Amino acid sequence: MNITELRTKSLKLAHDGADLLKTIKDDGSNEAEVTAQFDNMMKESDGLAERAARLDAVEARNRSFGEIVTDIPETGTTVRHANDTDEKREAAFNSYIRGEKSLSEIRAMGVATDPKGGALVPNGFISKLITRLRTEGPMLDPSLVTYLSTASGNPIEMPTFDDDKRAVIIGENTLIPEDDLAFNSKTLGAYKYTSKLVRVSNELLQDAAIPVDDTISGALARRIGRGLNEDLTTGTGVNMPEGIVTAASSMTAALATAFSVEELFALQHAIDPAYRRTGTWMFNDAVLLKARTMKDTTGAFIWQPGMSVDAPQTILGRPFVINPYMDSAFSTGKTVALFGDLKAYTVRQVRDIYVRRLEERYADYDQVGFVALARFDGKLLDNGAIKALKLA
Q1: φ and ψ at 21, to 5 degrees?
Q2: Cα(306)–Cα(313) distance, rounded to whole angstroms?
Q3: Which residues, 6+ apart, have CB-to-CB distance to 232 below 8 Å?
Q4: 38 and 17 in contact (C-beta within 8 Å)?
Q5: Hey, how many other C-beta atoms are within 10 angstroms of the C-beta on 387?
Q6: What is the pLDDT of residues 175-231, one digit of tens each?
Q7: Is the pLDDT of residue 167 over 70?
């Protein structure tokens, strides 16, 4: 199936699921059966949507590649690309990964190198890393959070203020009253993350038919992505990033084992309307399943499928994202929902992710070690923009 067919089928399953929920009897006698069937339909719908998104990313990459190709008449000449420098750097880096060139050789070809040993990955490799980082959770998605990249790792004081003052009327020849802004600040540091070592056999590296850079970037990015997304979600802020759940002020539900639709409404309205208009829900997938089957006081389901293949599914009229590092259990003290403008959370990345190739460490196994290192931090800069729902 192509992208349109996948998205159309995903949308149809979502709408069929919504219709299925309406068949739950008033006495609840068939609720378990219907809910189980609904869950399976939503998993299939979500899977089709993810396949469409992956195909869309591949086609976008192909389009980008096509745009940089210079059309040359068929006269036996070799096709050239507009961005030869980037291609040469990527080729040099791949040669370094395979062990065909040394650090000194790729340095001479213009590929940045780390003074302690290693190579800064080229732009193409970075895009692959970032794409894979985002698949491990929403906290590294620049479309959701504020993403800040800096050239150095020095602490940055980020200004914050909470100003609820308003203009007043004054008379003619009257002294203008003062009411200064109360500025505060939060510091963004730079914690070093490592993928840990990945060992790759020389046979794999020497096989030119295998896209070894994709294999390695996938392994390294998944490791860094998991660690970062977890810390940016629930980190304590002590010798690590302050997670968005940790930093957000919370409301407490009435029960320790469940939450109500009324409490979700209250969570939405605990946010300033300016943030509410751009608000996004964040749930663990297990909590999302519960929210998808809940009804408001009119008997309408609070989850709604998108009205078109490009429209997001919503909870109480606002889109949602799944974060595997939020709480999934319904028990005392668990944070089951987050709502607000996620752009209030800032993720800081220092320079580029860099990769080291360790040739001698595993030579007796005829293997080469690779490790990726990156420096990140994260802070919620506006506490009024996001609220969390915690079970009693």
Answers
A1: -60, -30
A2: 5
A3: 137, 139, 140, 241, 243, 244, 345, 347, 376, 378
A4: yes
A5: 22
A6: 888 877 666 788 999 999 999 988 888 887 777 566 676 777 778 888 999 999 999
A7: yes
Q: Is 354 helix (H, G, I), strand (E, B) or coil?
A: strand
Question: How do strand 335-340 and strand 280-283 relate by DSSP bridges?
Answer: antiparallel
Distances (CA, A) of 152 to 118, 156, 188, 348: 18, 10, 12, 11
Within 235-360, residue ranges assigned H as helices are 244-247, 261-269, 273-276, 285-292
Sequence letter at residue 290:
K
Q: Which of 43-52, 66-75, 164-173, 239-248 has the weakest average pLDDT?
A: 66-75
Please answer whether residues 193 and 354 qualify as being in contact, where contact means their C-beta atoms are separated by less than 8 angstroms: no
Tokens of residue 388, six digits: 């969390």
Place of tokens 């068939």: 30
Residue 236 DSSP code: B
Helix (H, G, I), strand (E, B) or coil at 219: helix
Hunting for tokens 């009897």 — which residue is that? 25
Domain boundaries, given as residue ranges, for the chain: 86-160+182-240+362-380
Identify the CA nearest to 340 among candidates 252, 278, 286, 294.
Answer: 278
**Each residue's pLDDT tens digit, 68-105:** 444 434 444 344 444 555 666 666 666 766 767 666 66
Find, among 98, 378, 364, 112, the residue nearest to 246 by Cα.
378
Residue 372 near residue 324 (C-beta atoms within 8 A): no
Looking at the predicted structure, is the pLDDT value of residue 148 above 80?
Answer: yes
Of the candidates 22, 8, 14, 3, the residue with the CA atom closest to the CA atom of residue 42: 14
User: What are the tokens at 130?
Assistant: 């970032």
Q: What is the pLDDT of residue 321?
A: 95
Q: 388: buried, middle or exposed (CB in 10 Å: 19+, 13-18, 0-12)?
A: buried
